[in-house]
Write a structure and sequence with these properties.
With 204 residues, the chain is mainly alpha-helical. It has one domain: Hypothetical protein af1432. Helix content is 61%, strand content 0%. Helix 3 crosses helix 8. It is globular, with a radius of gyration of 17 Å.
């Protein structure tokens, strides 16, 4: 029999994620941002991942990257593994002066880091991409111009997502294989629907 009770760590992750994302909405929509980390957690569960620490890191995976939260704040509240996986999923967006780094530099660095991350962090990255791609496909099929949400060309956006699925999807864990194949299927659907193909951008 499964235990349906949330662990204290997972309950705290829900609260921390909701607090830090409370004023944010999803890119190109009015949806509360918290929908995204909850969806990422749900995708991991559907892939067979039930461990509370992994699900907690999934809920928290964007708080350092996209809010004022700092990693040290999580260290005071969560197990070391949760903090490590959040760190491994976080893209370094700003330089030492606090200025936004070039898109291609950020993405190439994130791809390189993802290849060597723990499999648990890579599962979170894959689930993150699955929800983003699912949302893009849903909006595209609804007639929305999804590409205006991005600073990069559509072909570059598809290249990055496709490359990240490959970078994070290596390994023989069944959950990783399922997440990777689902991501590849979504990329194929987006290519078919949009008419764009993944093309690696030149260095800028």
């Amino acid at each position: 029999m499964h235990n349906l009770l949330l662990s204290p760590v997972l309950e705290r992750a829900f609260r921390v994620a909701a607090m830090y994302h409370q004023s944010q909405t999803r890119k190109g929509s009015d949806l509360p941002y918290i929908v995204h980390p909850c969806a990422v957690m749900s995708i991991l569960q559907s892939a067979g991942i039930q461990e509370g620490d992994i699900l907690s890191a999934a809920l928290l995976h964007d708080v350092v990257e996209d809010t004022e939260c700092e990693l040290r704040e999580l260290k005071d509240q969560f197990p070391e593994s949760v903090v490590r996986w959040v760190d491994q999923t976080t893209e370094e967006k700003d330089d030492e002066l606090g200025e936004l780094r070039p898109w291609i530099a950020r993405k190439r660095e994130h791809l390189a880091h993802a290849q060597h991350a723990d499999w648990q962090a890579r599962a979170i990255i894959l689930a993150d991409k699955l929800h983003n791609l699912t949302s893009m496909l849903f909006d595209l099929e609804s007639g929305e111009n999804i590409w205006e949400r991005f600073s990069a060309h559509p072909s570059s956006v598809l290249w990055y997502n496709s490359s990240m699925i490959a970078a994070a999807g290596h390994g023989d864990q069944p959950a990783l294989q399922l997440l990777r194949s689902s991501g590849e299927e979504l990329i194929d659907q987006l290519i078919e629907q949009s008419g764009f193909k993944p093309i690696e951008p030149e260095e800028s």
